[in-house]
Amino acid sequence: MDFMAAIKSGFRNYATFRGTATRSEYWYWVLFIALAGIALSILESAIWPFPHYAMMQGYAGPEWAMAMQGNSPLSDIFGIGILVPTLAVTARRFHDAGFSAKWLWLQAGTVLLAIAGMIGLVVTLASSSLMFGYGAPSELGWAAGWAIMQALTPALLFGLGYAIFQLIVTIRPSVSAEAGNKYAVPTVAASPVEESPAEDKPSV
User: Fold this and answer.
1) How confident is the chain (204 residues) per 10-residue block, as mean pLDDT?
2) Domain ranges (residues) in the chain
3) At 19, is the secondary structure helix, strand, or coil?
4) What does pTM read for this prediction?
């Protein structure tokens, strides 16, 4: 499958989580997302140049706050639009490699660990401030930064481990149904056509 065919397949099978997707189809889709992200970044810099300039110049105003938000509306809309087809093509790639798409639920583990870490951080900082009071602003900043890093480390490590696992799965070659892949469509071998014996023609 070539680049354009992979893009068409990704949008045609927008929410199709069943079936399979070849290795080329998946990685062409990933390439499409990367190229589209670069193009949108260039377009956004041309449409909204001042926030990025203000951020580089250290301007602390509303424009600086807008620049610190990261993505602009175009990137946000694009990201939301490709979320479902990206999950779908990843699920089909897992099937094509012989893996269940249920493995994708591990991605939620990163989010859950991050939420749990931030909740623990808030509770710890709140209890510490009530018991010991706030120290100097610099000390509080260093303590908060170190606490945030500790709170998010499990989520980051888990996310890194899952990213490596998904990379290994998505670079694997296709596994056929004949090789034991229950998600692949069996290849129907053409049965030879048996020639019926010629009927004896009555002699004239």
Assistant:
1) 94 95 97 96 81 52 51 85 97 97 93 87 68 51 70 90 97 94 79 51 50
2) 1-86, 97-178
3) coil
4) 0.75
